[in-house]
Specification:
The protein is mainly β and 179 residues long. It is built from 2 helices and 11 strands, in the order H-E-E-E-E-E-E-E-H-E-E-E-E. It is an enzyme of class 3 (hydrolase).
């Protein structure tokens, strides 16, 4: 079951959904609009290897924005920190942004129960496009879980700013087998 915008607002008021900063006018029919934060990550390497921490630069956007050329890929941040111990947040790109040629993919659109922090947004330009801090770029929906709840304690908990892939932390040395 998905929460309506009015219910998201109510649950935020009760502290069962945390959105910081919260702006009631961002509640839509069944979601909460998320804005783009200022920080971006740009990978330095041409080939990324999931077994190793990637080299990257972090830049801060000016108020005038940041231009992406066709094919550019950057990691951005939601301006808001959000999460819930009671509802499962899901993040979706705003369709109007996609119609500008900007694919917004959330690194994990299904947010774990108990996570609280900023979300990392994968931004891929299919056309030249300017991104601007504060632009409404995504929307969070909140879903009622069914079953026993275990709260998230993972490596991205309390994320501040965009996060590079930490898949290298999950890699195990390959076992050598003899045939």
């Amino acid at each position: 079951m998905i929460l309506t915008g009015a219910e998201i607002s109510k649950q935020a008021g009760l502290g069962r959904i945390r959105i910081e900063p919260f702006q009631r006018e961002r509640c839509t029919t069944n979601s909460y609009d998320l804005a783009l934060g200022r920080r971006l990550i740009i990978y330095r390497e041409q080939v990324l290897d999931p077994r190793h921490q990637a080299q990257y630069d972090e830049v801060e956007m000016r108020d005038s924005g940041f231009d992406l050329a066709t094919g550019d890929f950057v990691l951005g941040e939601s301006a808001e920190s959000f999460g819930s111990d009671h509802y499962v947040p899901m993040i979706h790109a705003k369709s109007g942004i996609a119609r500008l040629g900007l694919f917004v993919h959330v690194t994990a659109d299904l947010i774990d129960l108990g996570f609280f922090g900023q979300s990392t947004l994968q931004l891929h330009a299919t056309l030249p496009v300017r991104i601007v801090p504060g632009m409404l770029i995504a929307q969070a929906t909140f879903w009622v879980p069914h079953g026993e709840i275990s709260l998230y304690q993972g490596k991205y908990q309390h994320a501040r700013g965009p996060q590079i892939s930490r898949s290298y932390q999950d890699q195990r040395p390959a076992e050598i087998t003899h045939v």
